[in-house]
Amino acid sequence: MAHVPTDVRRQQFIDAAVNVIARVGVDGATTRRIAEEAGAPLATLHYCFQTKENLLWAVFEQLVEVTRADLEEKSEVRGEPIATMASMLLGDTVQWAIDNPSINRTQIEIWLWAERNDTEFAIRLYGMFIDAWKGFLRGASDPLSEDQLETVTRVVVSLIDGLSMQFITHGDEKMILREAETAQAMLRAFLESGVRQP
After folding, report:
1. Distance (Å, whole) CA 164 – CA 37
2. Are 192 and 83 within 8 A, CB to CB?
3. Which fold has domain 1-50?
């Protein structure tokens, strides 16, 4: 059997974990199942990550990096009004969830598992997304105060989470896009009104 470099093997385990978690949830995603999905020895998974929690953290870090890279691609939108940027962020993220159902489900499964099993881990996971989106929204042409930015970012994330969960539940793409458009319109109306105090 040919030697597989550690960084390649780590990525194989991360990809396998996403697939297994999307199918059976975090509790059902044993390290043995993930190793089988990756077509690799269980001992190699433990060598690469030591624990299941370390593997989950690596999966989540990769998801955040994908989000950050996506935000970097949207750099041409920076300098637009906050209403435009927040609305676009919501709409694009919901579309991403539709286009990537396994990754979307895995992300939510890991959040829920962490909330039940390790509150600090859950807070760190959620904080990574909040920080990434807050950093993006900070580039608006009409910036918010830090308190307002924190609140608006958390509201945007809450809307995305709710819409993502609804899509996982009913799978109706047209309905979720319609609901996302409504949420975008509400967000724009609030942010354009000038009444920004929470």
Report:
1. 26
2. yes
3. Arc Repressor Mutant, subunit A (1.10.10)
Tokens of 114: 């962490």
Map out the domains of the chain as residue ranges.
1-50, 60-192
- Single-letter code of the amino acid located at 152: V
CB 6 within 8 A of CB 46: no
DSSP category for residue 194: S
Distance (Å, whole) CA 179 – CA 185: 10
Helix axes 52-73, 42-49, angle to 10 degrees: 70
Return the SS3 of 144.
coil
Phi, psi of 5 (to 5 degrees): -55, 150
pLDDT tens digits, one per residue of 130-183: 998 898 899 999 989 999 999 999 999 999 999 999 999 998 999 999 999 999
Q: Which two tokens stand for residue 67?
A: 């989000």
**Count of helices and strands (H, E) across the chain:** 9, 0
Q: Which residues contact 38 (CB under 8 A, 6 or more apart)?
A: 9, 12, 13, 15, 16, 45
Supply the pTM of this predicted model.
0.82
Q: What is the CA radius of gyration of the chain?
A: 19
